Amino acid sequence: MAHRTLSGLVAAALSLAAVGVVGVTAGRAAAEQAVVVASTAPGYAQGQLVPDGAAVTVPDGANAMFLFANGRMLRIKGPFEGPLDRMPDASGWGGVGSLVGGERFFQTDLGAARAVGAPMQKGEEQVFTVDPGRPGTQCVKSGGTVLLRKPADPALIPATLRAEGREAAATLRWDKGTAMPWPRELPMGDGTAVSVAGPDGRVRHSLTLRVIAAEGVGSGQGAELAVRLAGAGCAAQAAALLDPVRDSVAPLNLYLATDRGLYPTYRSGETVTLVLQTNRDAHLYCYLRNTRGQLTPIYPPGPSASSLLEGHHTLTLAGDRMPVPLRAAERSGSLSADQEVRCFAAGRDLGADLPGRQDAFRPLTDEAAARLERTLATLKQTELVMAQVILRVE
Fold it and tell me: Cβ distance 288 to 363 under 8 Å?
């Protein structure tokens, strides 16, 4: 359940009202490609392309929001499995209450939504600035000046860019600012591969350029541009373009389940694997309630461990970030061995406010547990969501 201020809910409602929410049935929905705006469903990240007709899986407890090139937006609350163009018939979709109230499906028509389209267009210049510090595929706009951003990594200043398979190379120092035009000596074309080396001459990584046609770009067709970027393999740039949309219609959310689903059953002593994902960067805190009712901090796994979880990245516990294994409780006579895991995701670091951070994997005292409840109850001005899962032992 999300703890948000009344003004936050009103703002979300006004945002939806401004874009004109309408009910649309599956039969009238156009089958086309879509891009992920926000998702807590494992396997779906912001800026990811969903091809026309591809099956989508949103497990129970998770949700995902998709944007189509024509501006239609669709949110799915799991469980759901199937293509986006074969949604169940639900004539009651639509309306502000569908989003705030938590209905399983809703669709909105953003085709003429300047309130959402304008912020997307404002970010175009930054979206199309090439970052030589980031490997992979990056898109540039045809017919315009291509800018190269100064890398955040000082080990790449100066940076030498070399067209792979050719002799052409250029060394860039960014002496006059944080961005500079693409060097004339380097080729510029769709599919151009460029290696990036540091001052020592060692190649750090490579990037591939994709040229996006200028037609339709900058004319208010932000949704079409986002899908076009995702289709070209430029997921990070599509995600950057979609940030304002996500921030206006998708509050912070957290998915918590296990590798056996949302309602798992274990035998005593079996290994438990938790699966978590947020729809934006957030700070994560998890507690285990044992069979005696005691709360034990299990994440972050220590006072020096980071609580920051990158949005749309699936986290499994135990795992690399929490090496201590979790196991189902052992039964003791007729007493229940069921346990509960409760996790909180917040928009800021709460480490200094939460008791028990110094004592990971040790049960909190009754006083510390009461202080934790009081602290969480006072965080009304902080974006905070909670999720829980019961670990049943047969």
Answer: no
Over residues 188-210, the pLDDT tens digits come to 899 999 999 999 999 999 999 99
Q: Tell me, what DSSP letter sits at residue 263? A: S
- For 269, other C-beta atoms within 10 Å of its C-beta total 12
Q: Is the peptide bond before 300 cis (omega within 30 degrees of 0)?
A: yes
At 115-135, the pLDDT tens digits run 345 545 555 677 889 999 999
In a domain? residue 8 = yes
3 state DSSP class of 100: helix
* Choice among 185-199, 240-254, 320-334 with the minimum mean pLDDT: 320-334
- Lowest-confidence region among 85-89, 167-171, 353-357: 85-89
Q: Check: CB of residue 186 under 8 Å from CB of residue 161.
A: yes
Tell me which of 217, 236, 266 is where a domain ends: 217
Give the tokens for residue 213. Answer: 């046609």
Of 279, 358, 266, 337, nearest in space to 313 by CA: 279
Q: Which of 65, 90, 120 is where one domain is finished?
A: 120
The residues, ordered by sequence, that sit 6+ positions from 4 with a Cβ below 8 Å of its Cβ are: 251, 383
Q: Are 191 and 149 in contact (CB under 8 A)?
A: no
Q: Are 180 and 199 in contact (CB under 8 A)?
A: no
Domain total in the chain: 3
* Chain CA centroid to CA 53, Å: 23
Contact 196, 179 (CB under 8 A): no
Helix, strand, or coil (residue 373): helix
- Res 316: pLDDT: 94
- CA-nearest of 66, 59, 62, 65 to 40 is 62
Same-domain status, 33 and 149: no
- The model's pLDDT over 36-90, given as tens digits with 9 standing for 90+, comes to 999 999 999 999 999 999 999 999 999 999 999 888 889 999 999 999 876 654 4
pTM for this prediction? 0.81
DSSP-assigned letter for residue 213: P
* Residue 151, token pair as written in the block: 């890398």
